[in-house]
Amino acid sequence: MTDLARIAAALERMNPAPASAPDFDAASAFVWHPDPDRLVPVEHVNRLDVSLLVGIDRARDTLLVNTVQFAEGLPANNALLWGARGMGKSSLVKAVHGKVNADYPNLKVVEVQREDLPSIGRCLNLLRGRPERFIMYCDDLSFGNDDAHYKSLKAVLDGGIEGRPDNVVLYATSNRRHLMPRDMIENEQATAISAGEAVEEKVSLSDRFGLWLGFHPCDQDDYLTMIRGYCDAHGVPIDDETLRAEAIEWQMTRGSRSGRVAWQYFTDLAGRKGVKLS
């Protein structure tokens, strides 16, 4: 390779050509990857049927109505799903998209990793003006001290001069209602000259979500109902008495009870019963 060719290649890496939009008919879900910018189709989305999500009825119904409105081109809110670990926040987003996409195939979901938020403006440029509708999905969203990624997210929530594209809505999940640890909030408020302003910029980010959907630890009845639903849906044979005894023992060894723990027990059960999960 000549010196001129090497220089040209280096310049292209430093300033790549704008990414071209993928074939959005190829899949219902895509993952955003920067450097080089591209939307990668996902052939098989890892999700449950929405009917198997137990104990989160209010959040499920609210997000479903909001998503249908968006799919129909009506006004819809950005949504923040926050709360207890393992209680189905991510599962609900994927399940709701799957259910609505069955009736509205133009509704796509684009997953963006938290560490890729600085490139989110370039992703929006690929989606802006398209006939499809896009749920931009960010899982496990949170910010630490000196973390400026949240500034990039404002382009999706409020937008600048251009504003957020009409065909894009943001769904995010987080264990934290204000997207940052409580001890950091309290520490900055205690040490700041103006306590109220110290964390307002980060905390106010969550205020930009029109929907706040809270998820709380499940009780034992819901925990057992989840497992029974999985067994019935996948044809795993077990009587109620054995299921109850084993599932309660499983949760005690884990020291917690949640939808994630229920699925982990069910996975173990299905393996012991020789049932493959599709």
Notes on the protein architecture:
This protein is an alpha/beta fold. The chain has two domains: 13-215, 3-Layer(aba) Sandwich (Rossmann fold); 220-273. Helix content is 45%, strand content 13%. The chain contains eleven helices and seven strands. It has helices at 3-14, 57-71, 89-103, 120-127, 149-157, 182-191, 195-198, 200-207, 220-234, 240-254, 259-273, and strands at residues 29-33, 38-41, 79-83, 107-111, 133-138, 168-174, 211-215. The chain has a seven-stranded mixed sheet with strand order 2-1-4-5-6-3-7. Helix 5 links the parallel strand 5 (133-138) and strand 6 (168-174). The longest helix is centred in the first third of the chain and has 15 residues, at 57-71.
Detail the topology: elements first, then pairings:
Elements: H1 3-14, E1 29-33, E2 38-41, H2 57-71, E3 79-83, H3 89-103, E4 107-111, H4 120-127, E5 133-138, H5 149-157, E6 168-174, H6 182-191, H7 195-198, H8 200-207, E7 211-215, H9 220-234, H10 240-254, H11 259-273
Parallel strand pairs: 1-4, 3-6, 3-7, 4-5, 5-6
Antiparallel strand pairs: 1-2
Q: Sheet bearing the most strands, described?
A: 7 strands, mixed
> How would you state the average pLDDT, rounded?
85
Order of helices and strands: HEEHEHEHEHEHHHEHHH
Question: According to CATH, what is the topology of the largest domain?
Answer: Rossmann fold
* Count of distinct strands: 7
The number of helical elements comes to: 11
* Strand coverage percent: 5-15%
Spans with pLDDT under 50 lasting ≥5 residues?
none
